[in-house]
Specification:
Oligomer: homodimer
Number of helices of chain A: 6
Keywords (chains A, B): DNA-binding, Repressor, Transcription, Transcription regulation, Zinc
Pfam families (chains A, B): FUR
Strand content of chain A: 15-25%
Organism (chains A, B): Thermobacillus xylanilyticus
Distance between the termini of chain A: 48 Å
Protein name (chains A, B): Ferric uptake regulation protein Ferric uptake regulator
Largest sheet of chain A: 3 strands, antiparallel
InterPro entries (chains A, B): FUR (IPR002481), Fur_C (IPR043135), WH-like_DNA-bd_sf (IPR036388), WH_DNA-bd_sf (IPR036390)
Chain lengths: 151, 151
DNA sequence: TTCTATAATGATAATGATTCCAAACATCGT
DNA sequence: ACGATGTTTGGAATCATTATCATTATAGAA
């Protein structure tokens, strides 16, 4: 944990930013909830517990800053709320999401299936891809199975 | 044009809704601006021109209704504004978007490149895909070329 | 046609997410 | 330590969207 915070501190400092107590508290919350896709509001509430004097705007700014530094990934599932995920070293490319419209669960696919498509975009459209977002809405296996046993 | 309005009228009526003058004006604006990705505010301003007495809430309500009926598709590019696209009969599947982070332009790809991926999802993950969203952020050809001539 | 029940509308208030701004803070040269 | 300069902060403001509510329009029954 401390090692990862130290690493992020380095990343900030290399760009001329400081790891202030507020930023550190925010990063700690992200590290402790690495599995979840937290919204800024979620992060804010959790940070409040360890640093009650923090302001919501600071959390937004910190998340935005970390996003620019590629420490976190800003996600958008179409519900009007931005969510933030820590990027692990291994995931240079984004993973994709399977969002179940029945139970609301979200599963991640860590494979990146879009590399051939991105190459095609560069060649056929002259479009240089920096980032992408791919989400699927549908019915997850669990809901499918319970639905079958119901009917 | 009239034929398409008539068709939408049928769709509304089949679900017990009426094509009121306000809804018709909204649909006309969408038909006349089919190429664009209009925000609710955009639609509102355009509808005002042909039906000045309309309220913003009605435009929002109408767009939401049309979205539920799958007449329009509600898009979200992460800029905090929902945008609405008419769905054409041919596009059962969504098209994809190339969003330029430099000039903000947006290009559409009408091909659906995800069909093989969706099949894989069904088989490997047991996930039944209903809908998907694929957006690429990057630098468009035009910006790339002008950037090269600048430097 | 007239009455009645229901759906739809427009104005405005409320909400939720995000951003702006003046004040607090830290850093550096003196 | 002291002031100048730029950074960071928290609260207030803003923007998009949704809910409320009183009013109006509509369709069907009598």
């Amino acid at each position: 944990m401390e090692a990862r915070i130290e690493k992020i501190k380095q990343q900030l400092q290399s760009q001329g930013y400081k790891l202030t107590p507020q930023r550190e508290a925010t990063v700690r919350v992200l590290l402790e909830n690495e599995e979840d896709h937290l919204s800024a509001e979620d992060v804010f509430m959790l940070v409040k517990e360890i640093a009650p004097e923090i302001g919501l705007a600071t959390v937004y700014r910190t998340l935005e800053l970390l996003s620019e530094l590629h420490v976190v990934e800003k996600l958008n599932f179409g519900d009007g709320v931005a969510r933030y995920d820590l990027r692990t070293d291994s995931s240079k490319h984004h993973h994709h999401h399977l969002i179940c419209v029945q139970c609301g669960s979200m599963e991640e696919i860590m494979e990146d299936w879009l590399i051939p498509l991105e190459e095609r975009l560069e060649q056929e459209y002259g479009f240089h891809v920096i980032d992408h977002r791919l989400d699927f809405q549908g019915i997850c296996r669990r809901c499918r199975e319970s639905r079958e046993s119901d009917e």
